[in-house]
Amino acid sequence: MKKQTKLLLSSIGMGITGWLSIGIGYTSTMGSTLNGILFMGGLLLCFIALIVFILSFKEHE
Question: Which residue, of 2, 14, 36, 40, is most buried by count of CB atoms within 10 Å of its CB?
Answer without folding.
Answer: 14
